[in-house]
From TrEMBL:
This is Ester cyclase. Gene3D superfamilies: 3.10.450.50. It holds the Pfam family SnoaL. GO terms for biological process: polyketide metabolic process. It comes from Meiothermus hypogaeus NBRC 106114.
Amino acid sequence: MSEVNKSIVRRFVDEVVNRGNLGAVDELLSPNYLDHDALIPGLPGGREGAKRLYALLHAGFPDLEVTIEDFVAEGDRVALRSIWRGTHRGEFGGIAPTGHQIAFENLELLRLQKGQIVEHWSIVNNHNLLSQLQNRGASHE
């Protein structure tokens, strides 16, 4: 079961996060999906919020790529440490494109049930990411 769950999470990262295939969200996330730590406050919950999040991320960072550095699974839980990289080429979080590359580390825990992701927790310093974009953008004005 753990290896199957890892393959589901890896597929989500590859298809949705890296390729921007929002159609895969309905297949890989449960209809009752709950994100406990939304990257962008104010988005709707569930699958629709996930679709909007990844659409916004890909609009702001068209070359977004996530590399899984550590990947552990036990029972219905999968944990991963990943590095997110991209170039700020579109508006994101109200910040005009800076053209700068970003990179940040993310720690995630996901719970799966019946072949779908049902819950997600994440530790990423959202404020720090937005602050870096704002500071970098301000330095070129």
